[in-house]
Each structure stands twice: as C-alpha cells, then as structure tokens.
Recover the amino acids of this structure.
C-alpha cells in the first residue's frame, strides 16, 4: 500500500506460504525507507504456523515421552540412593523400615523393567510376539502389582499398630514378604495363562475388545487399593481422637508414616485409576490427561523415596551420625 517515507506498515500474515498455513490474526511488518523504496525484508516473526491435528498429537506425544523418560530417570536415581541408605544404615533396621525398603525395591524393579520395555519393544517385536517380549511384559506387570501389595503392607502394619493396638513385636518379616512378593506371583501366572489362551498377541500389551484377562491382575490391585483407603480412614480417625496427645517416640514415628501414606496412597491410586478414565473428545482435556498421567506415573518412585526415606527422621539422624563419625576419623 501507499505509505509515507520512514513509516512501518503492517499487513495480516499470509494464509499460506510454501504449502504451510499461518495464523492470519497476527501481522507482518515492513518499513518504507526514506528513499521511497521498501525494505528488502519484512518482519514475519509474529506469523505462527498453524499445526494440523496430526502434528499437534505428535508434538504432545513426544513431550509426554520426554516427561516419562525424565521422570523414570529421576525416580530410579532417587530410589537407588534410598535403597543404599536403607541397606547401609543397620541401626534403623526395624520392621517398619524393612517394609519401606522392600517397597522401594519393588519400585526400583518396576522402573528398571520399564526401561527394558521401552528400549527393547518396537513394532516388529510386537508383531513377532516372541517369548522373551512376553516374559518382559509379565515381569513388568508383576513388579507393578508388587508396588500395590507393598503399599498394602504399609497399610497393614500401620493399621495393626494403631487401630488394632497389637504389639508390632508379634508381626514378622515373612508375613509382609508373603504379602508383597509371594501373593502377586500366582496372580501374574494366572494372568499369563489367560493371555496365552485368549489374547496371545503383541507381546501381551493392550487388550482385544471383549477380552478381560487384564482384570486378573488389575482386580486384586484395585481391591488392595480400596482396603488401604479403609485402613487409612481408620488410622486417621484413631490418630485424631485417641493418640492426639501422645508424645511417645513410637507414636510420633507412626504419625510421620501415616502422613507419608496419606500422600503416597492417593498418588498411587489416582495414577492407576486414570487408566480407566476416558478424557473425552475435547482437545484440551486430552492434552491435560496425557501430561498429568505421564508426570504422575513416572515420578511415583521419586515421591516414594522422598517420603519414606529422605524425609524419614530416623534415616536423617542415622546419616548425620555416620557423617560426624566419618569427620572425626
């Protein structure tokens, strides 16, 4: 358009350029020079490409993958540090901390098998449905189930100690090992047999319509999750009424363990229940669902390490003692 010398003129961004669509609500700028000619280059910085649905979904998928890898790396690092601390600090090795230690171990194994799944599974492997890929899937699901059963062990211990007021001296380590490591094994074996006979494809990932073999292991996970919520309700009720004024060191430790469980159990539960939620057709809902689920799923191990180890006053006290002893030497 006709313009005065020295004036900067704005025009709407082009609808398309070299086959790429642009947002026409923004403007492109070009200066009319003092000699009456246009500047060789215009300012197209505000012209933004309109991503089509395929590009958008790919972009969000790649970001979600990055979040997943980052979260699992951070979680695995934190879990390994927590594992080493519980292994080295023998002075705090009571049953309560042994349960924490096993829960952390279960999360380490689950995170490790997640990396194995990501690094070995590809479309060709899925289609071939070889034995080793089915075993990897079975191992991943087994450690997934052990996470829930060790959280159930945490709930059982606290419920027994606080609500039932039994002496924790009567509780034995083997009881919790049976709950956390042994019970999930036949559940996964039953699931594997069901998959082998009714849904033996794609390395046992996903499920065909009308086939419900995955509920063989998902059902027990939901059950122990619901029982744990009942335990937690009873524990909080007792702590609020009967033990509020108690200041014994044991009660204080129970309170701290309950606080950790209050945070971690909903975290674990919300993440798992999201698998059953349909985010709907709304684009924003789907994007929020993808990112929220990726973040919670991948950072679970980090939160477990923080609440059951790094914020554990017994662990911190033992670490300080070790540090002072090392400095004195």
């Amino acid at each position: 358009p006709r313009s005065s010398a020295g004036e900067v003129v704005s025009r709407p961004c082009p609808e398309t350029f070299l086959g790429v669509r642009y947002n026409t609500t923004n403007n492109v700028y070009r200066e009319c020079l003092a000699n009456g000619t246009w500047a060789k280059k215009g300012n197209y910085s505000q012209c933004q490409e309109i991503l089509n649905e395929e590009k958008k979904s790919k972009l969000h998928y790649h970001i979600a993958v990055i979040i997943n890898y980052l979260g699992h790396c951070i979680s695995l690092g934190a879990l390994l540090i927590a594992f080493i601390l519980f292994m080295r600090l023998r002075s705090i090795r009571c049953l309560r901390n042994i349960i924490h230690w096993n829960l952390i171990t279960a999360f380490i194994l689950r995170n490790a098998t997640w990396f194995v799944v990501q690094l070995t599974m590809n479309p060709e492997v899925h289609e071939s449905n070889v034995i080793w890929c089915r075993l990897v899937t079975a191992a991943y699901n087994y450690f997934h189930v052990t996470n829930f059963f060790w959280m159930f062990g945490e709930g059982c211990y606290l419920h027994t100690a606080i609500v039932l007021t039994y002496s924790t001296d009567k509780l034995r380590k083997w009881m919790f090992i049976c709950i956390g490591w042994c019970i999930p094994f036949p559940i996964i074996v039953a699931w594997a047999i069901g998959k082998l006979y009714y849904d033996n494809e794609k390395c046992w990932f996903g499920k065909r319509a009308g086939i419900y073999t995955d509920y063989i292991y998902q059902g027990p996970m939901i059950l122990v999750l619901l029982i744990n919520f009942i335990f937690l309700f009873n524990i909080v009720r007792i702590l609020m009424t009967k033990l509020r004024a108690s200041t014994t060191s044991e009660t204080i430790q129970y309170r701290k363990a309950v606080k950790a469980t209050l945070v971690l159990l909903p975290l674990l539960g919300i993440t798992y229940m999201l698998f059953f939620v349909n985010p709907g057709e709304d684009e924003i809902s789907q994007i929020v669902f993808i990112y929220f689920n990726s973040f919670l799923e991948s950072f679970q191990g980090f939160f477990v390490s923080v609440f059951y180890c790094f914020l554990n006053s017994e662990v911190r006290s033992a670490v300080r003692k070790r540090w002072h002893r090392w400095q004195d030497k």
